[in-house]
Specification:
The complex is a heterodimer of chains A (about 375) and B (about 500).
Chain A: H1 13-21, H2 31-61, H3 79-86, H4 93-106, H5 109-115, H6 118-131, H7 136-144, H8 148-181, H9 188-201, E1 209-213, E2 216-221, H10 229-244, H11 286-294, H12 300-307, H13 316-339, H14 349-365, H15 371-374
Helix pairs in contact in A: 2-4, 2-8, 2-13, 4-8, 4-10, 5-10, 6-8, 8-9, 8-10, 9-13, 11-13
Chain B: H1 2-17, H2 21-49, E1 58-66, E2 71-77, H3 81-98, H4 106-125, H5 129-138, H6 140-150, H7 155-184, H8 191-194, H9 201-218, H10 227-234, H11 237-262, H12 264-290, H13 295-316, H14 319-350, H15 369-382, H16 389-401, H17 406-431, H18 447-465, H19 468-483
Antiparallel strand pairs in B: 1-2
Helix pairs in contact in B: 1-2, 1-4, 2-3, 2-4, 3-4, 3-11, 3-14, 4-5, 4-6, 4-11, 5-7, 6-7, 7-9, 7-10, 9-11, 9-12, 10-13, 11-13, 11-14, 12-13, 12-17, 13-14, 13-16, 13-17, 14-15, 14-16, 14-18, 14-19, 15-17, 15-18, 16-18
The chains are: A mainly alpha (about 375), B mainly alpha (about 500).
Chain lengths: ~375, ~500
C-alpha cells in the first residue's frame, strides 16, 4: 500500500531569519534541547568514529575485491568477531555505505568533478591494471566493459572521502561533549559556535586517497588536486545526506510511476532533515540503522531522560531520531553561518540584504523538513 | 459435581457481595478470579471422567423441585454441552482477568459476571426444559445491569433493547416448551422422556417455529439481530467477550438440543428454509460488516455471519454437520472473544474504535504492535486460514452441507470470502500506514493486558492443528442426535447413504 507522508506544516521563513540574524540557531535554545543535542552528538561521535574507520579500511584494504565478504570486520577475521557480526551485536556499517552512495549519486563539489575527469580516468586505469596484473580474465573483462571497474574505483574514492570527513566530524562531536562536561557549553548557540569553529578549523584540510597495491602506492585523489574538507566533502555531504537523501529505502513509500518522485535530483527532499522518525514497519530503513547504533553509546544522562518518557525504552529509536534531528539542525545552522556571504550579525544594509537572499534560499529548502516540528 | 459448576460462582458472588465496603476494591477481583479459576479446575477434573463415547447425559443429578409443575432439578452433561461448559469456564476467567483493576462498584460488578457464568452453565447442563428456561432467563438480568451500568454513552438504550429482545426470546422458548408438554400430555418437563413424543407434524411445526423465532433472536439470525450490534458497542470489553463467546451459544445450543432433538420431523421439513435463512444471515452480516466504521460493530456483524454457519450445519442434519455445528460454536466463541479483547485494548489506549480515525497502530515503536499482530492472527482464524481453528470449523461445516444444500453452501462460502474483505479493510485502515501524530503518544500495553489474548491465540492455533482434541468429545453425541431411531423415523431422514457427506467408519454404530 502507498504510505502517505505526514501532513506538511509550513515554516514561517521570517521568524527563522530573525532568529538567525540575532545569533540564535534554527533550534530553539532550551535546557532540554541542549541536553538532547549534546548527548546525542556524543553517541553520534562514537558511531561516526567506527563508521570512519571502516570506510577508510574498505577503501585501503578492500580495493577492488569483487566479493568483500569480510569488509565490515576491519581486518579481524577471528571467530569471536564473526559470531558478534552474525549475532547482529555490531555497528551497522551499512548505514555508512548508504550515506556514501547518496553522496556518490548526488555528487557536487570538486571531488565529483575530478572523478569525471580524464586525469582521474588515467589514475584509475593504472590502479586497476596493477590490481589485476597477471589476471587475464579480469583484464579482458575490463577491456570488454571499460566503465565497470572505474566506477568501482570512483565509489572507493567516496568511501575514503566520507571516511576522512567523518573522522573530523567525530572528533568535533566528542570534543563538544567533553567541553559540555567541563561546563564550557551552556546553550544551543554555544553548541553551534563550537561546531562552526571545528568546521572552520578544518575547512582547508586536504582530502586525498592513495591505495597500496603489491607494495606500490597508487594515487587516486592526489593532494595536488587541492580537494578540501569543507567544500569538497562537508558541503556535498550536507546536500546529499541532510537534504536530498535516497527516497527508496526511506521511511515513507513513494511511487515513482505515479510521479511522486521529483524529476530532478535537486528537488529531492528525503534527507535526514526530512526523515520521519516513526518507522512504519518496512525493512531496510537507513535512519533506523543509525538509531540502533547510537542507542549503544548514549550518555547516561540522556538515556535517563528517555527512560522517563511515556513509552520508556520501547520507542528509544524514535526518541533518538528526534534528538538527532535537533542536533542536525544545529549542524545545519553552523553550515549556514559558515557559508553566509557576510556575518549574519552585520549591520550594513547591503550585506544584510545579501544575507537575507542567502537565508531565504536555505529556509525555502527547509519548508518541508522537520524544522517546525523540532525547532520550538 | 455439576452443581458445583453452577453454584460455586453463586457462592463466590455472595461472598463478594458480603465484603466490607473498605475491602471490596482490594478483594473483589482476586476473589472472583479465584472462583473462576476453581470452576475451570472443576471443569478440567470433569474432563478426566467424561466418557466421549457415552450418549446418555453423564454425571446426572435429579432432585424433585416443584413436581406438580413438572419442574425438576435435573442436570447432565453430554457431548453437546461439554465443549460449551469449557468455553464458559475459560471465557469467564478471561473476562474477569480482562476487567480493569480500578473498575467502579466492584462489589456489584464481579458478582454479576459470576451470575452470568452461573446462568450459562445452568442452561448448558439443565436436562429439564423449565430448568433450562429459568437459567436462560436468569442470565438476562446480570447482562442487563452489566451493560446499563458499565456500558458506553448509549448504554441505557442498548441495555433496554437487549432486555426487550431477549425477554421476548425467552417467552417464545417457554411457549414452545409449554405447548410441547401440554400437547404431548407429559407430566414432566424432563428432557429425556420428551424425546419420545410423537406429536402430529402440523403441531410440531407450530411449536418448532415458535422455538426457532425465540432462539433466532438469541443467536441472532437476520432479521432478529438488531439488538446485538448495539449491545456489543455499548458493553465493556469483558462483557462483550462473554456475550459473543458464551451467551450467543445459548441460542445455538437450544437450536440443536431442542429444535433438532425434540422436533426432528418438523426440523426435516423446515431444514431447506433454515438453510436459506442461514445464507441470508451470513451474507447480510458480512455485507453489513464491510460498511461499519466502528471496530466493535465489524466484529459484531461478523458474529452474525459466523453464527449463521451453525444454523446451516444444523439444517443439514448429518452426523458430520452436527459435529461441525458444535465445533463452529467453539471456534466462534474463541475467535470473537479474542477479537473483542483486542478491540478493547485498542479502545482503552486510543480512546476510539473508529476505523477512519485510527491508522498505523502496527508501528513497532509507538503503536500497538503486539495487539495488531494478535488481531491479524484472530482475523486470519476468522477468515478460515488453514492451521487455525476457524478453518477446521468452516471446512467441516461446508464439507458437510455441500451435498445437501449446495447453493446455500456456495453462497455461504462467498460470505467466508467476505470475512477476509471486511477484516482486512479494518486491519489495513487501523494498523497499517503511518501512525498519526495524534496517536503517537499512546501508553504502552502492559503484559497482563495481553495475557488473555495470548491464551486465546494459542487455543486458536492449537485447535486448528489438533481439532480432534475438541471434536472427539462431541462426535458420538452428534451422531446419536441424527442416527438414534427414537429421534429419526426412517421415512423422514435427510440422511441417506447417498447423502452421507463423509464416510464415518470411526463412529460407533447407531444406538
Amino acid at each position: 500500500m502507498l504510505t502517505t507522508a505526514q501532513p506538511l506544516i509550513q515554516v514561517n521563513i521570517e521568524d527563522f531569519i530573525t532568529r538567525l540574524e540575532s545569533g540564535q540557531a534554527l533550534l530553539k535554545d532550551t535546557p532540554q534541547n541542549l541536553v538532547e543535542v549534546v548527548g546525542i552528538l556524543k553517541s553520534y561521535g562514537v558511531v561516526l568514529d567506527a563508521y570512519s574507520h571502516n570506510l577508510i579500511y574498505i577503501a585501503d584494504h578492500q580495493f577492488l575485491r569483487l566479493f568483500p565478504f569480510f569488509k565490515y570486520c576491519n581486518g579481524d577475521r577471528s571467530l569471536a568477531r564473526l559470531k558478534k557480526h552474525w549475532w547482529h551485536d555490531r555497528i551497522n556499517y551499512e548505514y555508512a555505505e548508504y550515506c556514501m552512495k547518496a553522496m556518490f549519486w548526488h555528487g557536487g563539489g570538486k571531488l565529483d568533478e575530478f572523478l569525471d575527469s580524464p586525469a582521474f580516468a588515467q589514475l584509475a586505469d593504472r590502479a586497476i591494471r596493477a590490481r589485476w596484473r597477471g589476471n587475464p580474465l579480469m583484464l579482458t573483462l575490463h577491456r570488454i566493459f571499460p566503465d565497470y571497474l572505474p566506477e568501482q574505483v570512483r565509489q572507493l574514492c567516496y568511501y575514503s572521502a566520507l571516511g576522512q570527513f567523518w573522522r573530523v566530524m567525530s572528533d568535533i562531536f566528542i570534543n563538544l561533549s567533553d567541553a559540555y562536561d567541563r561546563g564550557e557549553i551552556a546553550d544551543i548557540p554555544a553548541v553551534v559556535s563550537f561546531i562552526l569553529a571545528g568546521l572552520v578549523a578544518d575547512a582547508a584540510r586536504p582530502v586525498h586517497y592513495t591505495v597500496e597495491i603489491n607494495g606500490q602506492p597508487y594515487e587516486l585523489l592526489p593532494p595536488a588536486q587541492g580537494l578540501t574538507f569543507l567544500m569538497d566533502t562537508a558541503v556535498p555531504y550536507v546536500e546529499a545526506v541532510f537534504f536530498r537523501g535516497a527516497p527508496f529505502p526511506g521511511t515513507v513509500s513513494y511511487n515513482a510511476q505515479a510521479y511522486q518522485i521529483p524529476q530532478e535530483q535537486e528537488q529531492f527532499a528525503y534527507g535526514a532533515l526530512y526523515a520521519d522518525p516513526l518507522p512504519i514497519g518496512g525493512s531496510g530503513i537507513p535512519p533506523t540503522l543509525l538509531m540502533q547504533d547510537m542507542r549503544h553509546f548514549l550518555p547516561e544522562y540522556l538515556h535517563a531522560i528517555y527512560r522517563k518518557q511515556l513509552r520508556q525504552e520501547d520507542d528509544l529509536r524514535v526518541q533518538i531520531c528526534e534528538s538527532f534531528q535537533k542536533s542536525m539542525f544545529c549542524v545545519t545552522t553552523a553550515a549556514i553561518q559558515g557559508l553566509a556571504p557576510h556575518p549574519l550579525s552585520t549591520t550594513d544594509p547591503e550585506e544584510q540584504g545579501a544575507n537575507r537572499v542567502y537565508l531565504k534560499g536555505w529556509l525555502r529548502r527547509l519548508q518541508e523538513s522537520r524544522l517546525v516540528r523540532v525547532a520550538y | 459435581m455439576l452443581s458445583a459448576l453452577i453454584w460455586m460462582p453463586v457462592l463466590g458472588a455472595i461472598a463478594i457481595l458480603l465484603l466490607p465496603q473498605a475491602r471490596a476494591e482490594q478483594w473483589a477481583r482476586p476473589l472472583a478470579l479465584g472462583v473462576a479459576g476453581f470452576v475451570l479446575l472443576l471443569t478440567l477434573i470433569l474432563s478426566f471422567e467424561f466418557d466421549p463415547a457415552g450418549v446418555a447425559p453423564q454425571f446426572a443429578q435429579r432432585l424433585p423441585w416443584i413436581e406438580p409443575l413438572g419442574l425438576n432439578y435435573t442436570l447432565g452433561m453430554d457431548g453437546l454441552s461439554f465443549p460449551l461448559i469449557w468455553l464458559n469456564s475459560v471465557l469467564t476467567l478471561v473476562a474477569i482477568f480482562a476487567t480493569r483493576g480500578d473498575i467502579e462498584r466492584p462489589r456489584f460488578y464481579y458478582p454479576l459476571i459470576l451470575f452470568l457464568s452461573t446462568g450459562a452453565a445452568g442452561a448448558f447442563l439443565a436436562q429439564n426444559l423449565l430448568l433450562f428456561f429459568l437459567f436462560y432467563e436468569i442470565e438476562i438480568v446480570p447482562l442487563y445491569f452489566l451493560i446499563a451500568i458499565w456500558g458506553g454513552s448509549r448504554r441505557g438504550y442498548a441495555a433496554m433493547k437487549f432486555l426487550i429482545y431477549t425477554a421476548l426470546s425467552g417467552i417464545l422458548v417457554l411457549a414452545s416448551f409449554l405447548g410441547l408438554v401440554w400437547a404431548s400430555g407429559a407430566k414432566t418437563f424432563d428432557y429425556q422422556p420428551l424425546l419420545q413424543q410423537n406429536l402430529p407434524l402440523d403441531l410440531q411445526l407450530i411449536l418448532l417455529i415458535t422455538l426457532l423465532v425465540g432462539v433466532f433472536i438469541k443467536i441472532p439470525i437476520f432479521p432478529f439481530h438488531t439488538w446485538l450490534p448495539d449491545a456489543h458497542v455499548e458493553a465493556s470489553t469483558p462483557v462483550s467477550v462473554l456475550l459473543a463467546g458464551v451467551l450467543l451459544k445459548l441460542g445455538t445450543y437450544a437450536l440443536i438440543k431442542f429444535g433438532v432433538g425434540l422436533f426432528f420431523q418438523a426440523w426435516v421439513v423446515l431444514a431447506p428454509s433454515l438453510a436459506i435463512l442461514a445464507t441470508i444471515s451470513a451474507l447480510y452480516g458480512a455485507f453489513s460488516a464491510i460498511a461499519q466504521q466502528d471496530m466493535k460493530k465489524v466484529v459484531a456483524y461478523s458474529s452474525i455471519a459466523h453464527m449463521a454457519y451453525i444454523l446451516l450445519a444444523a439444517a443439514a442434519s448429518t452426523p458430520l454437520s452436527m459435529t461441525a455445528a458444535i465445533f463452529q460454536m467453539v471456534s466462534h466463541g474463541l475467535i470473537s472473544a479474542l477479537l473483542f479483547l483486542l478491540v478493547g485494548v485498542v479502545y482503552k489506549k486510543t480512546g476510539t474504535r473508529d476505523v477512519h480515525v485510527l491508522q498505523g497502530l502496527l508501528n513497532p515503536e509507538r503503536g500497538l504492535p503486539i495487539t495488531g499482530s494478535l488481531m491479524i492472527v484472530g482475523v486470519m482464524a476468522s477468515a478460515g486460514l488453514p492451521g487455525m481453528v476457524g478453518f477446521i470449523a468452516e471446512f467441516m461445516v461446508f464439507r458437510s452441507t455441500f451435498p445437501i444444500f449446495t447453493i446455500a453452501t456456495l453462497l455461504c462460502l462467498v460470505g467466508t470470502g467476505l470475512t477476509a474483505v471486511y477484516f482486512l479493510l479494518m486491519i489495513n485502515r487501523v494498523f497499517f500506514g503511518r501512525l498519526p501524530d495524534a496517536l503517537a503518544t499512546i501508553p504502552k500495553v502492559a503484559f497482563q493486558d495481553h495475557l488473555p489474548s495470548f491464551v486465546l491465540t494459542m487455543l486458536l492455533i492449537l485447535f486448528g492443528l489438533q481439532p480432534s482434541w475438541v471434536v472427539r468429545w462431541s462426535e458420538t453425541q452428534a451422531t446419536n442426535f441424527i442416527l438414534s431411531p427414537a429421534l429419526r423415523p426412517p421415512s423422514l431422514s435427510l440422511l441417506s447413504t447417498s447423502h452421507s457427506p463423509l464416510p464415518t467408519p470411526d463412529f460407533p454404530p447407531p444406538l
